[in-house]
Amino acid sequence: MNLGKLFGKKSKSKSTQNFNDSEKFDTNVTTTSQTREKRNVRERIHSEAILNVYPVDSSTLLTGSQDRTLVLYDLINHRISRRWTGHEHDVVKVLYGRLVHLIVSASRDRTIQFWNTNSDQPVQKLLGHELVVTAIDFNPENTMLVSGSRDNKVLFWDVKTGQILKTIMIGRNLITDVKWSYDGTFIAQTGEDKENKMYDARSMTQVVSFPKKQYIQTSCDISHDNQYLISTSNGFNGSGAEISLWDIRQRKLLTEFYGHRATVNSGRFIDQTGSTIISCSNDGRAILWNVQKNSIFADLDVDNATPLTSITAMNAQNFATSGLNGRLNIIQHNHRQLQMIDQI
Questions:
Q1: How confident is the model over 73-88, as a mean pLDDT?
Q2: d(C-alpha 9, C-alpha 239), whole Å
């Protein structure tokens, strides 16, 4: 990715707590987003907030909710393909292993569970964390899983046996997200200690700590060429709520993207070149970013400033974001605009 000349920071604005907090959200936020197109509003697939959304393929989404269920949703036929129940508390993160055809869920009940599409019951339950499991990701071969929790532990698992391969415990490292690199050599991790860390996949040890940020880091993603890392930030009283772009090799901060007015809960690279990022926030907005120019391609007030909990790219033009109102929002980038084309 050629970053080119990066512009200066955009003006900071008010931000609020992240979506895991118990306080009320500030929904009285105005926006200059594009005018909404007419769209279908379908029956909700969850009875409570959707906390995470993950793409199985370009027409199928996996969701996890506060209603303790996870759902496989068919976007073409507009129907629930399967709903799984089995967790005793919120389903915080969901994941799909394409090589092993396994669906994975992480929960506030402290467990990680494996599922397949042929059964209503979990095929494996992983026990090892002592508090809510907040982060999960597969290695590229889907033979190992990494998980993180508010118990300060990063665990490496053997997918076939369900056994713990390695436990890393770092004081005050309340994990918010993990991401395995595309080449399989390292794992990035964000946490409430405001520090982004990297782990060597072979030795399963911490090898890098990036310079500490001012606010809690809420999510992370790695570019397809494994050269860049983004992390998203909490914020308070006009500070924070930024997306940070890091050079992994040089282990330094390259630039920050400002435009959200509240905690940014999720950010993702959306193309092979790492030139575009999509993000969502408690301000109810989805923003598409031009990385090279450090500018906004397009933005959308998704649903009357309802806090958005996660966002994912199904391809370079189509995205899905989840909200605290229990809605799944399907967004399309068209003619330099973000438009909501469906709401479930």
A1: 97
A2: 12
